[in-house]
Amino acid sequence: MALIDVDGVSKAFWIPSVRRHTLREHLLGVFEPRNFQQLQVLDQVSFGLRQGEALGIMGRNGSGKSTLLKIIAGVYLPDAGRVSSHAEVTPVLELGVGWNQELDAIDNVMLVGSVMGLTLDEIRRGLDEILAFAELERFANMKLKHYSSGMSERLGYAVAFKAVREVLVLDEIFAVGDAGFKARCERRYRELRSAGHSAIIVSHDPRIIATFCDRALLVESGRIAAEGAAREIADRYVATLTAAPPGSAGSA
Amino acid sequence: MGSTAIAAERVRTAPDRRHAIARAGLVWTLVRTDFKARYHGTLGGFVWALLKPVSMFVVLMGVFSFLFASKPAYKLNLIVGLFLWDFFAEGTKSGLISLHTKGYLLTKARVPSWILVVTSISNALITLVVFSVVIAAFLTVFGHPPTLVAFTGYAAYCLAMTAIVIGFSLAASVLFLRYHDLNQVWEVVLQAGFFIAPIIYPLDILPERFHFYLYVWPPTPVIEFSRSALVAGVMPTTTGHVYLAADAAICLIVGIAIFRWLSPRAAEYV
């Protein structure tokens, strides 16, 4: 049995010809009907994540990778299909954002840690470790609005790595911080994998996928174009980048 | 280990004990951080926030107690009405923008969004508790010490008001993600609603045939029943209680229904 089973998942966004965000705009535009264009982000995507496996997902910008991760994480709802999860998923998404700028690092760790499913006791016990991992002990009582984007992202990684329950879902892992921080992230990731945790990693970096994943998927235009060994898919992704883009005259 | 299925139609999570403890921790953290962010984590900040309705009470009492000099209980009715209104106005305003202001949490993980909405009214609720003590003290000083029955009735009316505020907040919070000027519309409604509810004037100065229409505005029965119990010492009729209970239940049920309909896709609008 797969730990996470993604079965025929489809997702579309409807893009209006004119965006209306207010009641006033809707009322004034009641006699001006809009056209909607369907943007099919995911189309009948199916795959499974096995126990202890690290699965990479690669694809061009706009291919649907991040939407797929958000559906797996339960942030978005699919239009069709089903995601069955037999393990708790810890998503690491949009690390640069997601903080209350008026609170200090400690309160933000409590807040985001709670949202990620940690109990208050677990957060309190892990607080020093989280701050040390992010190298932010000296700035623990500083409000997040005074943090640089790099500091916020490091804090995000530190909380997420602490919050991992069973499956780690990562969007663009190891893209944050200096060489030292990246090395710490990689080390922590290997520790989690050694402890039997499974992972789903989205990345544009073939080295990341080839190094840290067992298996990978190549997503193109919302569909799985290829599935196989991580290194093989990473090589294929690089080949698609150097080839003409899909739909261009040269690609026919 | 929990088993979860995210299908096109529904999201289900199997509860367990640890999950419940984590959920309780989330509620507490949201309440605590909301309080801290709003009042800068100080008691002084909280006291400063209390000054707005208190100063309004002092000014209105100064002006209107001359106009209603024939009604000795005017200032008592005013303080009850004004503080209950403050809870209604502040609670609904916070609830309306709650998913917008905490949208950064919605896109981070699967978080029960109703908790974000319900905890957003905690500051208004804390203020109401403080004001309830002030009301009891004020009534006692001016010779109307509330009886246990009267205060129990008042607590029940506050509970009904809380249900109304939660119902409104649940519906408005998901609608605000789609209609970004809903808060401005609500400000206008609140401004009109302040005068529709009999806060600064006694209800009996209006012809009785209009009373029904004023009672349709949810804060009106809460304010009037609280005054009746605390100031006049007369408990409202059973019919009145049934009306208020039905009013609160309808607000809550409609709010939950709209929230359940729109909230599964809330993260897409953040």
Word description of this protein:
- The complex is a heterodimer of chains A (252) and B (270).
- Chain A has eight helices and nine strands.
- Chain A has a single domain (4-243), classed as 3-Layer(aba) Sandwich (Rossmann fold).
- In chain A, helix 3 crosses helix 4 (120-133).
- In chain A, a hairpin with a 2-residue loop joins strand 8 and strand 9 (223-229).
- Chain A has helices spanning 23-28, 65-73, 105-115, 120-133, 149-163, 179-194, 206-212, 230-242; strands at residues 4-16, 36-49, 54-59, 80-85, 89-92, 167-171, 198-202, 215-220, 223-229.
- The longest helix of chain A has 16 residues, at 179-194.
- By secondary structure, chain A is an alpha/beta fold.
- By secondary structure, chain B is mostly helical.
- Chain B has one domain (39-269).
- Chain B has helices spanning 17-39, 43-67, 74-96, 98-101, 103-106, 113-119, 122-141, 148-178, 182-196, 211-216, 219-232, 238-262; strands at residues 4-7, 11-13.
- In chain B, a hairpin with a 3-residue loop joins strand 1 and strand 2 (11-13).
- In chain B, helix 2 (43-67) packs across helix 3 (74-96).
- The two termini of chain B are 31 Å apart.
- Chain A binds chain B through residues 13, 21-24, 26, 70-91, 93-94, 97-100, 102-103, 107, 110-112, 114-121, 123, 166, and chain B through 1-8, 11, 18-19, 21-22, 25-26, 28-30, 32-33, 36-37, 104-111, 178-182, 185, 264-265, 267-268.
Task: Characterize this entry briefly.
The complex is a heterodimer of chains A (252) and B (270). Chain A is α/β, with parallel strands linked by helices and 252 residues long.
What's the helix and strand layout?
The complex is a heterodimer of chains A (252) and B (270).
Chain A: E1 4-16, H1 23-28, E2 36-49, E3 54-59, H2 65-73, E4 80-85, E5 89-92, H3 105-115, H4 120-133, H5 149-163, E6 167-171, H6 179-194, E7 198-202, H7 206-212, E8 215-220, E9 223-229, H8 230-242
Parallel strand pairs in A: 3-7, 3-8, 5-6, 6-7
Antiparallel strand pairs in A: 1-2, 1-4, 8-9
Chain B: E1 4-7, E2 11-13, H1 17-39, H2 43-67, H3 74-96, H4 98-101, H5 103-106, H6 113-119, H7 122-141, H8 148-178, H9 182-196, H10 211-216, H11 219-232, H12 238-262
Antiparallel strand pairs in B: 1-2
